[in-house]
Structure formats: structure tokens, C-alpha cells
Amino acid sequence: MMNRTVALAVGALGACALSACAVFPDQYDPVKEQQYVSVINSLTWTNPLTGKRDGLRSAWPMRTLQGQTEVFPLAQVKECPAAGAPCAWGVLSASRSVARAGYVQGGVKLDLQLALALERRQEMRQDSFSTALTIPADVAALHWRKDERRALTLPYGKVERIEFEHGLRFEVCALRYDAAGQPLDSCAIPYI
Which of 62, 86, 89, 188 sits most deeply, having the most CB atoms within 10 A of its CB? Predict the structure, then answer.
């Protein structure tokens, strides 16, 4: 009987400790200072028609980031190996997911996964829409796939840049805001 009482008491103490973790913020969570954090990320490439950088930039509240997957829109990428040689084209399919996100002193820590693929044809099916892009059969096609996993520690305001083949670039930065919604840091990730 005594062992059962001790086991119940230990179990109750453990449950209280777990629920306290949910109520009290992490020791480095800026909410203690009436601040919140967003993670800014972008995936860019060279637009094959204009030659300028193109892509998508988005911001995600840190509190909802863990477990989230962002699917980037399909895009066309072109690579011309040498002057006069025919160019190869590919349809880019890309997504970013965060398995784990947390606060560290002076920044955030993310377990990030990027899935990138260039193929002749790509499809995207979401709950509310479907889309597809195809490179014509008489045009040389790019075939490339990259699954990148990284554990990142991002100081507030510092941009982490990951360069890939075919001119693809992923950038990510953690940005703090005060209670009035004004940024306390700057993330030099351009709007597209």
C-alpha cells in the first residue's frame, strides 16, 4: 500500500511538472518581456525570363512553427551550361518543415528540413487546389533532388543562408517584436 501511495504521489508530481511546462514559458522565451518571435524564410531562384531573383518570402510565428510544413509554389528554373549550348529547364517543387523549434539565449534553435526537386513535370495537390507544370518534351530537362536536414541556431536578426545547385537559395532569420508589434531586430531577407 505504501509503494502504491508513493507511486501515485510521484505520478501526480510528474503531471504537475509537465503541466507547469505548458503554463510557464521557456527560460529564454521573449514573452516574459512582452515580446514575440517570428521566423522569416525565403526560397529564391533566378527567374528564367527576367534573369532577376524570384521566389517566396514568408513569416511564421514561432509558437506555431514546430511541426509546420510550408509548400512553396511550383516554379520554372533554367540552366544554360555554356554560350551557344541549349539550356535545360526544370520545374521546381519545394517544401520546408520544422521538426523542432525552441528558444536559446539570444535566439532560436530549429531542426529544419528542406525538400527540393527539379523535374520535367511536377504536380501539387492541396486541399483547396491542384496545379501542375510541365517542360515540353523537345526541351532538355533538369533532374535533381535534394533533401537537406539542418539543426540551426539563429541569433535574433542574423540571416542564415543555404545555397544549392541550380541557383536555388534558402534564407531564414528569427525576428523579435515588441508588444506593439514593432520589430526589435532586422532580417536582411528582401521582399520579392
Answer: 62
pLDDT digits (tens, 9 = 90+) for 70-128: 999 999 999 998 777 889 999 999 999 999 999 999 999 999 999 999 999 999 988 88
Gap between the Cα atoms of 166 and 180, Å rounded: 41
Using alpha carbons, select from 22, 104, 119 the residue that is nearest to residue 74. 119
Please state, in angstroms and rounded to a whole number, the distance separating the CA atoms of residues 67 and 130: 23
Q: What residues form DSSP beta bridges with 58?
A: 41
Count of residues in the chain = 192
| Residue whose cell numbers read 509537465 | 18
pLDDT digits over 15-52, tens only?
444 444 444 467 878 778 788 999 999 999 999 999 99
Pull the grid cell for residue 46.
533566378
How far apart (Å, rounded) are the C-alpha atoms in residues 42 and 189? 7
What's the predicted TM-score (pTM) here?
0.82
Which residues, listed in sequence order, are joined to residue 131 by a DSSP beta bridge?
124
Q: Which of helix, strand or coil describes residue 167?
A: helix
Would you say 101 and 161 are in contact if contact means Cβ atoms under 8 Å apart? no
The values of phi and psi at residue 79, to 5°, are -135, 125
